């Protein structure tokens, strides 16, 4: 990001004054050129000296100059006056849209992110500039609103484990005979939650900023690592984890894509049946995905990640809210795990950063089916 320092500039003539001077100068030069051509044409037929002929008195060039020069002088003065006055009016009309843009820019810079130009009229360069500014201001307003909402939610979420730790310490201080193991266990749980939430926020911020260098990513290898990491959690909760790490490759950040897989599998485990549930996790390649277009070429097979989990029935109406930040499906959470509310939000952000398509659907017999379609490897990569 820039430093926000405005470049110091010395005051200079306004654009309207420059355009007015340009119009007047152009009109004067054009008038002089026309008069020069006329003068040259007249001189060709006028004798150098006056005289008399068959038709009477014939004026010479000196007589022509005495008659022509005053008229030409007044004509040039009139051209300058018309050029300045007309140029000033025309320049003002032409620059009026820019003044609207300048006013809107100042308003947005002062914090009025809801200010819009909404310039009327048919499309031209100025309307394109105004429409582009309005679109930028709308995106900026939405981004700032999202950041403010995110910051407020994050501070609220972090306050909870910190308050718990402070409460535990205060209680232990008042009761020296309190069970030390219990105090340590509660402190460990609260600190673990704070660390988990902080790490999730860092991953989410990294995905939002697209701050990674694209590289070739083998999804099958990443899937095997994620399955090995998640297997103890699944076994601890009595969940069957089925993995099919098929060959598939994409381009992006290996760490973020692996985090996406981890979050999906983790979400499938903790939002499952108390016992006897199952999570299916596979990577594969497929043709062009259905639905909105993604940033992939249609003549090449893209990489796909599919995670399905059993569980209670999910209301289709709440599915679009599952990727919202700090939104927890608390009615589907078991084993005392309440998460950070960022699992699927991180998945959605990572998918967007990689130009992927994310699809979340409730399964007819309960649970969710999540599909992520990632861009394929470029030929020769």
Descriptive overview:
The protein has 7 helices and 9 strands, in the order αββαααβαββαββαββ. The two termini are 32 Å apart. It has 381 residues and is of the alpha+beta class. The longest helix is centred in the middle third of the chain and has 50 residues, at 125-174. It has helices at residues 15-45, 61-109, 125-174, 180-209, 219-236, 254-270, 343-353, and strands at 51-53, 56-58, 215-218, 240-245, 249-252, 278-286, 302-309, 357-362, 368-374. α1 packs antiparallel against α2 (61-109). Mean pLDDT is 79; it is low at 290-299 and 330-338. It has a 5-stranded mixed β-sheet, covered by helices on one side. A two-stranded antiparallel sheet has the order 1-2.
In a few lines, what is going on in this structure?
The chain is an alpha+beta fold and 381 residues long. It has helices spanning 15-45, 61-109, 125-174, 180-209, 219-236, 254-270, 343-353, and strands at residues 51-53, 56-58, 215-218, 240-245, 249-252, 278-286, 302-309, 357-362, 368-374.
């Amino acid at each position: 990001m820039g430093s926000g320092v405005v470049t110091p500039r010395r005051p200079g003539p306004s654009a309207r004054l420059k355009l007015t001077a340009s119009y007047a100068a152009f009109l004067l030069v054009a008038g002089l050129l026309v008069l020069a051509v006329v003068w040259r044409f007249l001189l060709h037929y006028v004798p150098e000296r006056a005289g008399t002929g068959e038709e009477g008195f014939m004026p010479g060039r000196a007589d022509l100059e005495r008659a022509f020069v005053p008229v030409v002088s007044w004509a040039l003065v009139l051209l300058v006056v018309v050029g300045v006055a007309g140029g000033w009016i025309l320049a003002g009309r032409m620059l009026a849209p820019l003044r609207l843009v300048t006013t809107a820019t100042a308003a947005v810079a002062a914090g009025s992110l809801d200010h819009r130009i909404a310039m009327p009229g048919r499309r031209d360069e100025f309307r394109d500039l105004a429409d582009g500014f309005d679109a930028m201001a709308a995106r900026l307003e939405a981004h700032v609103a999202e950041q403010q909402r995110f910051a407020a939610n994050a501070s609220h979420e972090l306050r909870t484990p910190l308050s718990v730790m402070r409460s535990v310490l205060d209680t232990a201080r008042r009761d020296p005979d309190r069970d030390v193991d219990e105090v340590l266990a509660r402190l460990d749980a609260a600190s673990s939650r704070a660390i988990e939430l902080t790490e999730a926020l860092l991953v989410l911020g990294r995905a939002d900023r697209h701050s990674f260098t694209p590289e070739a990513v083998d999804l099958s290898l990443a899937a095997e690592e994620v399955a090995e990491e998640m297997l103890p959690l699944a076994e601890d909760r009595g969940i069957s984890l089925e993995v099919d790490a098929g060959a598939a490759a994409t381009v992006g950040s290996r760490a973020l894509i692996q985090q996406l897989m981890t979050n999906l599998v983790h979400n499938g485990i903790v939002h499952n049946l108390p016992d006897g549930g199952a999570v299916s996790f596979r990577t594969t390649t497929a043709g062009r995905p259905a639905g909105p277009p993604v940033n992939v070429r249609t003549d090449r097979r893209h990489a796909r990640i599919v995670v399905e989990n059993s569980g209670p029935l999910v209301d289709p109406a709440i599915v679009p809210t599952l990727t919202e930040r700090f939104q927890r499906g608390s009615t589907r959470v078991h084993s005392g795990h309440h998460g950070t509310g960022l699992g699927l939000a991180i998945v959605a952000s990572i998918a967007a950063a990689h130009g992927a398509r994310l699809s979340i659907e409730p399964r007819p017999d309960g649970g969710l089916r999540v599909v992520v379609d990632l861009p394929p490897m470029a030929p020769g990569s």
